[in-house]
Design a protein that fits this description.
The protein is α+β, with helices and mostly antiparallel strands and 185 residues long. The protein is built from 4 helices and 12 strands; from the N terminus they run H-E-E-H-E-E-E-E-E-E-E-E-E-H-H-E. A hairpin with a 2-residue loop joins strand 4 and strand 5.
Length: 185
């Protein structure tokens, strides 16, 4: 697994460095250097929405919507790749109607095999959490790298702490949230 993640890091570094040399386009949060698009596992999202009662929403400049029959979320890549970290702007929120958890400014750490997010609850920042563990995923056309997103145990514990979920964190940890396609320019 570590060698796979190192290959992902190398391919992404080459693609991002090439994009930096060419230049990015101006985005809402600075220079966008491409995007990471996540094709969400609709069964998992169904459990989040229907069984856990959490409503997801995009936080700009991130987006959430249907692309054909696929539910996708997309986040602009910003900054230069440094130390194997791919930084993003925008994010998603989850709300149960009275409490809102915002997950923003994603960092894909190709060295550690994890995607982290800045978390805040009802507007109060609580810190950066490891959101997803990255796993191997089939290559996709147009992607410099792909990764399977499995909910981390830390994220499952945080979700339970915020929303007092009817399931144990152990039961949520590892849940398949979809496949990320990193496409720098």
């Amino acid at each position: 697994m570590r060698s796979f993640l190192r290959r992902v890091g190398f391919v992404t570094a080459v693609a991002v460095l090439g994009a930096v040399a060419v230049g990015g386009t101006a985005g809402a949060a600075g220079l966008a250097r491409g995007a990471t698009t996540v094709t969400l596992n609709q069964a998992t999202i169904g459990v989040v929405v229907n069984d856990l009662g959490l409503a997801p929403a995009a936080l700009k400049p991130g987006s959430l919507g249907m692309n054909g029959s696929d539910l996708q979320a997309a986040f602009p890549i910003v900054g230069n790749l440094k130390g194997g970290i791919i930084k993003h702007t925008g994010g998603l929120s989850l709300s149960d109607g009275s409490t809102t958890l915002a997950l923003t400014n994603y960092f894909i750490d190709t060295n550690e095999g994890v995607l982290t997010a800045k978390a805040s609850v009802d507007g109060v920042e609580v810190g950066r959490i490891p959101l997803f563990d990255l796993g191997a995923a089939p290559a996709q056309t147009g992607c410099a790298a792909t990764a399977q997103l499995g909910l981390s145990f830390d994220a499952a514990t945080a979700l339970d702490a915020v929303f007092d979920l009817p399931v144990e964190p152990e039961d949520l940890a590892g849940a398949d949230f979809g496949i990320a396609c990193v496409a720098p320019r």
